[in-house]
Write a structure and sequence with these properties.
Elements lengths: L12 E4 L7 E4 L1 H5 L1 H13 L8 E5 L2 H13 L2 E7 L7 E8 L2 E8 L8 E9 L3 H12 L3 E10 L5 H4 L5 E6 L1
Parallel strand pairs: 3-4, 3-7, 7-8, 8-9
Antiparallel strand pairs: 1-2, 4-6, 5-6
Length: 175
């Protein structure tokens, strides 16, 4: 594994064999708990999209919420949560997707995005791209346009970036 040194990597805890054997979980809670690091991470990620016209910022459950909400605030855009199946209380659109260690389902409220709205997707980590690709499909099913995807960390070598095609993708640090 090659890590591109970045100040963020000093605030990430690696948890080996979690949630399954041979998977290393990148725990961002040390970064979130450090006020200066959290502020800097939100600002640096938001700055990558400052010139992108955005109607909505989607946060992917659960760590994506933490980053997406302040980025939506900075962009003067609405915030939309994308949740695991069964967590939203109203009519939803659902998408099943593959993870590096299984499958899962994401949901979004049917009225969360209107046709033509420009949507920025934010999550903590880009690995295989399964979660991000599923989120993009949800946006597009509702008629939205994905204008970019932002991540704190990217795990290179797992094909995530390639799975997302020619989309505008920004990651602050790469493992």
């Amino acid at each position: 594994m090659t890590v591109t040194r970045h100040w963020i990597t000093d605030h990430i805890r690696d948890i080996v064999d979690y949630p399954t054997p041979n998977v290393t979980f990148r725990d961002i809670t040390p970064l979130l708990g450090d006020a200066d690091a959290f502020h800097r991470a939100v600002d640096e990620l938001a700055d990558r999209f400052v010139d992108v016209d955005t109607s909505r910022v989607l946060g992917v459950e659960a760590r994506g919420f933490i980053l997406a909400a302040p980025i939506a605030y900075r962009a003067h855009a609405g915030f939309v949560p994308v949740r695991k199946a069964g967590k939203l209380p109203w009519a939803v659109v659902r998408e099943e997707y593959s993870l590096e260690y299984g499958t899962d389902k994401l949901e979004i409220h049917r009225d969360a995005i209107r046709p033509g709205e420009r949507v920025l997707v934010i999550d903590d980590v880009l690995a295989t791209g399964g979660t991000a690709a599923a989120t993009c499909r949800l946006v597009e099913e509702l008629g939205g346009v994905v204008v970019g995807l932002g991540f704190l960390l990217e795990i290179g070598g797992l094909g995530g970036r390639e799975r997302l095609g020619e989309r505008h993708i920004e990651s602050l640090a790469t493992y």
